[in-house]
Amino acid sequence: MSLLTRCCTAAPKWARTTFTMPIPKKLNEIVRLPLFEREEPVKIRSMWLEHINEKPRSIGAVMAKPEWDVFHKNALACPMFIVPVQKPEGYFNMVSQIQDGKYCLMTFLDHYRSNPTEAPPFMVLNFYDDLLKSKELTLLRADLVAPDLSKAEGEAVVRTLREVKSSRAGG
């Protein structure tokens, strides 16, 4: 049975359980913000990536101000986007919905089409712009919710979303 057939015929077992909407943490709940603010941008980037990427189901990234400015503008103008995800058996599509330009939920496109209000998230992204004014950085944290989504696939999704939303065309 192909991935597309499996995904279209029934929600995965993990998606049929009760799900509590993820609440984004504030940056000061993840790191010691006063200590972070003392560091140079290069050191902040290094510490953030090390801290987030050591977690098996999390992906960290850092956006410089020029990239963030374009990304944020495009995210507000066009908050939804479809991202293809490659699997060994083929592809499936995820739909992203960016909320307030700082929070992004991603789910399987067919789940969203079936019931947009109850589609379970596959991945949740948070954008922390707390250091934008002082260090010209926005920190990104993506958490994989779906057990069937690998970290490598999540990294590819984050990369695609950043490339599209950070381009002048905007996606």
UniProtKB/TrEMBL annotation:
GO terms for biological process: mitochondrial proton-transporting ATP synthase complex assembly. One of its GO terms (cellular component) is mitochondrion. Its main location: mitochondrion. Keywords: Mitochondrion, Transit peptide. It is found in: Mitochondrion. PANTHER family: ATP SYNTHASE MITOCHONDRIAL F1 COMPLEX ASSEMBLY FACTOR 1 (PTHR13126:SF0), CHAPERONE ATP11 (PTHR13126). Belongs to the ATP11 family. This is ATP synthase mitochondrial F1 complex assembly factor 1. It comes from Perkinsus olseni (Perkinsus atlanticus). The lineage of its organism: Eukaryota, Sar, Alveolata, Perkinsozoa, Perkinsea.
